[in-house]
Amino acid sequence: MKRLIVSLLGIFVALTIRANEGMWLPFLLENNIGEMSEMGLHLTAEDIYSINQSCLKDAVVGFVDLDRPFHHFCSGSVISAQGLVITNHHCGLDVVQQHSSLQNDYITNGFWAMNQSDELGGNKIGVCFLRRMEDVTAQVLDGVNDTMPSDKRSILISNNISKIEQAASTDSTLKAHVDAFYCSNEYYLSVYEIFEDIRLVGAPPISIGKFGGDTDNWVWPRHTGDFTIFRIYADSLNRPAPYSIENVPYRASNYLKINAKEKHENDFVMLMGYPGTTNEYLPSFAVEATQDVFDPIVVEIRGKSIDIIKERMRNDQSVMIKYTSKVASLANAWKKLQGERNGLKNKHVVDQKREREKQMLAWIAESDERKQLYDNLLDDYEADYIEYVKHNRAWLLMSETIYKSEALTVCRKIKTLINENMEDSLRRAQILDYLNEFYADYDSETDISVTQMLINEYLANAQPEHVPATLKKWNNTASFAAAYHKSMFTTPSTAISFFEKHSVVNEKTLLKDPLYKLASETNDIYNTKISKPLSQIQRKNNHHQRRFMQLQRECFADKRFFPDANSTFRVTYGQIRGFRPSDAVVYGPFTTLGGVMEKCDMDIYDYTVPDRLKQLFAANDFGTYCNADGTMPVGFITTCHTTGGNSGSPIFDADGNLIGLNFDRVWEGTMSDLQFDADICRNIGLDIRYALFIIDKYAGAQRLIDEMEIIGN
C-alpha cells in the first residue's frame, strides 16, 4: 500500500502544472492572471495583450528570415521610440558576419554605428509584430470528421486555412497565418505586421557577446554579454517596406522602459517571445527513441564536424570569420542534445510517462464509451512508432552526414533550381545570386575534411540500400579526394564561370560532375526509399498523437494544458531563483563581471577578454549600472519555461519594465522540450545593466543610451 501511495503521488506531481511551467497564449491570459498576480505581477491581462490599446505585446518582435516569414528564429524587444530593437548577439551573428571582412572584422572587434548614417542595412532578415490572435478551430474543422481518410482530412483543413488567411490579409501591410495547436486539435490565427528593413546598429566583440563560447554554452554560471542592437526602418508613412535609402526609423507605437535597479532572488519575472518547438505530450516510447536513438546520432556526428572546423578556425583567421556562425549553429544542438539526453535519463522521464499511460489505460477501462474511442490507441501508436524509428533513423543519418556537406548542399540547391519551372534567364540569375552568396563564406579545405568524415560516417552506419552507387566506388580517402577536387563546385570561380557562360543549363552536363552526380543520387534515394515511407508512417503517427492528446486532456481534465511551442507568440512567467542540479552542488542566481575575470585565459579562445573591459573592471568604472556592493552584474537565471526561438526574448519585472534578455537554458534542464521539471529547468538571462554598461562605458555609444528610457539608475 505504501508503494502504491508513493506511486500515485508521483503521478499527481508529474501531472500538476507548476506555476513556472507553461508557454501560454497571450490572448487567453485571463486564465493565468490570478496566479501571476499572486506571484507578484502588477499588470492586468489587457496590459500584456490587447487589440484595443497599446500593450506590452506591441513592443515585442519575432526575428524572421524574409523567405520564411512565419518561422521566428529569435525574439527581441523595441527599446526606443525610434525603433531600436535589442536581441541576442548569437541572433545577430549572421548579419555581423556578412558585414565582416579581414579589413573590417566586426566579429572580433565589434561594431557600433556612432551615427544613424553608419547603420548597416541590406540584411535578409525582418521583424514581425503580432497584431492579434484568434481561435479559428471551428472554421478550420468545418466539414471535417474523424471517419474520413487522413489525406482527405488534410486537404479539407488546408483549404479552410487558406480561406481564413486570405480573409485576414485584406490589409496589404498585414500577413496572416493559421497554426495548429494541441497536436492539431485546435487552430489559432495570428496576424502580423512584418518589417523588412532591419539595420545593424551595435554588437559587442565576440569575446564579450559569446564569452565562454561553446565551452560554456548551455552552462551555468554564465558570463556572456549576449546582445546585439538593430533598428527597424519603415517608409515615410511608417509602413513596412523593402530596404531603401529613402526609409526612415520606425516610429514605435510602444517601447519598453528599462529597469536598471538591482534584482533579488525570488523576484517575479515574465518573459514574452516566440518559442520554436516543444513536444511535451509524447508517449513514453517516443521519448525513449529520442533519448536512445535520435539524439545520439546528432551528438556523435556533429561533435566530429565541430572538432574539424574549430581546428581550421584556430589556424586561419579568414576561416574563423567565415565559419564562426556555422560552427555555433552546429554546436548549439550538439551540446543541447547531450544535456537533454542526460536529463531524460536522470529524471527517469520514460518511466514517468509509462506511469501516466497506465493511469490512462485504467481510466479507459472504466467506461465502454472510452473503450470504443481509445482502447487500442496506445498499442497501435507504439506499433507504428517502431516503424517510424527505422525510417527516421535513416533520414537522420543522411541529414546529419551527406546533407551537411557544403559542396553537396550547393549541388542539391542547383538541382532544385534547374528543376523548377522558370525562364532560363531567371534561373541563371538565381543560381548566380545563390553561388555568390554561398561562396562568400566557403572554404574548400575545411569542407573537404568535414565531407570526408561525414561520408565515412554514412558508409559505416547507413543501410546498404540507402548508399548511392557513386559513394560505394569512393572506398578510400584518395578516390574521394580526387572526385572532390575534380568537381567544379569546390572551386568558386569555376562554378560561377560555368553558369555565367551557359544561358541554358542541361542537367546531363552537370551529371558529369562527381559531386553533382552524388547529390542527385542521394536525392533519388531519399525521395524513393526514405521520404515516402517516412511520410506515410508520420501521417499515421500524427493521427495517433492527435488522439493521444485528446485522451490526455480528457483523462486529466483538472490539469491545465498549455499548447506545445510552435513559433507563435507566448508568455511564460516565474521567479529569479538558483537551483541544485546534483548532490552537494548549489548554484546562486546571479553572475558578475568578476566571474569574467576569473575565467579569463588569453590562451583559450573562448575565454579571451578585451583589454578595454579589463581596464574598466580594474578601475571599477561601471557608471550607474552596478549593484549596491559595487559589483557589475552580468547574468541571472529564472524558472521560466523557454526553448529555442526564445533567444532574445525580453524578461520583464512585475511592472512590465525590461530587466534582461533570455539567451539560453541550463544544461541540466534542456529536457524541458520534452518534459519540464521545476527543480532543474532554468533559463539564463543577460542582465540589461550589463548591456547598458557595454554600450555606454565600453563602446561610448552615448547616442543609443540617450534614446532609451532608463529608470532606477
How many domain modules?
2
Per DSSP, what share of the residues sits in E-state strands of 2 or more residues? Answer: 15-25%
- Give the class from helix and strand content and strand pairing: alpha+beta
Spans where pLDDT lies below 50 across 5 or more residues: 1-16
Query: What's the gyration radius in Å?
Result: 26 Å
Oligomer: single chain
Report the strand count. Answer: 21
CATH class of the largest domain: Mainly Beta
Distance between the termini: 59 Å
pLDDT average, as an integer? 94
Biggest pleated-sheet summary:
10 strands, antiparallel
Using the alpha-carbon principal axes, give the shape: globular
CATH architecture of the largest domain: Beta Barrel
How much helicity do the residues have? 40-55%
Per the CATH scheme, the topology name of the largest domain is: Thrombin, subunit H
Can you count the helices?
26
How would you concisely characterize the structure shown here?
The chain has 26 helices and 21 strands.
Notes on the structure:
With 713 residues, this protein is α+β, with helices and mostly antiparallel strands. 43% of the residues are buried. β18 (650-652) and β19 (658-665) form a beta hairpin. The longest helix is centred in the last third of the chain and has 42 residues, at 514-555. The strands form 4 sheets. Strands 1, 2, 3, 4, 5, 6, 7, 8, 9 and 10 form a 10-stranded antiparallel sheet that branches. The protein has a 7-stranded antiparallel sheet with strand order 13-12-18-19-20-17-16. The radius of gyration is 26 Å and the shape is globular. Helices cover 46% and strands 16% of the residues. The chain folds into 2 domains: 1-277 and 562-713, Thrombin, subunit H, CATH 2.40.10.120; 284-552, no CATH class. It has 26 helices and 21 strands. The chain starts with a helix and ends with a strand.
